[in-house]
Specification:
Strand content: under 5%
Helix content: 55-70%
Strand order of the largest sheet: 1-2
Distance between the termini: 60 Å
Largest sheet: 2 strands, antiparallel
Structural class: mainly alpha
Number of helices: 10
Shape: globular
Number of strands: 2
Order of helices and strands: HHEHHHHHHHEH
Length: 193
């Protein structure tokens, strides 16, 4: 049975032996009760809030690596880059990351001093970025920051079956009909003021 990325990620979190991981798995699946379904921005915010301990993040790291979702891995790397204990676990497994994420990893200044011990296990592109020096790493870091910002830009989404044309007021707006503001006057009756 093929699972959606959301179902795969939530089921993997649910399998962790952490009480907060089970709550997070529910949030991945359905969001807050009665609320919208979270997208990467809300998932990252909630992760940052709930998983503050290095030991918890190391457990999560193993799960994320197993799932292999590049978006989740990129956000994890970005949010954990300044946590030495977590990044030590990441560096031990860095060779298992997809090449694009190995390149992202070597761009982080926070781990630059520890990278030389792990470079020989990384893909040539990642090694080249690191060995090219600070300016090249900075340019790669800018690309990483842009990718992270793009992922986080969407906090919640409306499922495809909720057609925005069926929202209140949408039919009038799409047909060009004037809508009346709360005061009862339209722009035309007030001279456009």
């Amino acid at each position: 049975m093929d699972l959606t990325p959301r179902a795969t990620l939530s089921s993997r979190f649910e399998a962790l032996a952490l009480p907060k991981a089970k709550t997070y798995a529910d949030f991945i699946r359905t969001g807050e009760p009665g609320g919208p379904i979270p997208c990467w921005g809300a998932l990252a915010e909630r992760f940052q809030r709930d998983f503050t301990q290095a030991a918890d993040r190391k457990d999560v790291w193993s799960a994320l690596l197993e799932v292999g979702d590049r978006r989740a891995l990129l956000l994890f790397l970005h949010m954990s880059r300044d946590r030495a204990e977590v990044m030590d676990a990441v560096l031990a497994d860095a060779h298992r990351l997809p090449p694009s994420l190995q390149c992202a990893l070597v761009a982080f200044d926070e781990i630059a001093e520890r990278l030389p011990d792990h470079l020989d296990r990384l893909v040539p592109a990642a090694r080249q970025i690191f060995e090219a020096g600070p300016e090249t790493r900075m340019r790669e870091r800018e690309v990483v920051e842009a990718r992270v910002a793009a992922l986080k830009a969407f906090r919640y989404f409306v499922p495809d079956h909720d057609d925005p044309r069926n929202e209140p007021g949408a039919k009038a707006a799409m047909s060009g009909e004037a809508t009346t503001p709360a005061g009862g006057e339209t722009g035309a009756s007030t001279g456009g003021r």
